[in-house]
Amino acid sequence: MQRLYRGQPKNPGVEWQTPLMIFWGVLTMLFVGFREESCYRGIVLHIFADKYLKDRRGILITAFASAAFFGLMHMNNILIGQSFVQTVNQTVNAFFLGALFGAVYLRGGNLWAMMLIHGFIDLGMASKNLLTKTYASDAMAYIASNNATIDSTEILLKIILWAIITEITLFLLRKSKCDEIIERFSTTER
Known about the structure:
globular; about 70% helix; mainly alpha; about 190 residues
């Protein structure tokens, strides 16, 4: 028996009716990457970099503090009907992914690449949801329809994933790369 949630139609899933709908869907997901990376790596990370980017400790503060702002921004989804548990889950996921994005940006310095990476990750998640028909025909109904619980297996897998992401982030920001990062950001016009 299919469980119905507030705002979810009886037959969930989007049926793409025209190529134009596919085009706009792809463009929308890529725009999310552009918008969020412009703000959180392009502005917030640079604010922390200007203040703290002097040594490894400052590099870590820059990456993780900008990630905290990125994660906390996702808490606003509770205002549109997403459950508290799912909102906190999304916020923590965004924090760890934001730290990784910050590390990649600090190492590479290419904001456009980060925008595309972020956009394609969002596009991939949206495509998975479309293909499996796990969300309703509009974004608000999808967010509101998320299950309010997370089981212990999911928690364990997420902790393992967060540990792996943290290790990759710390590897990218390792001591031997600090001078390179500081040099790039001290000579780059922002």
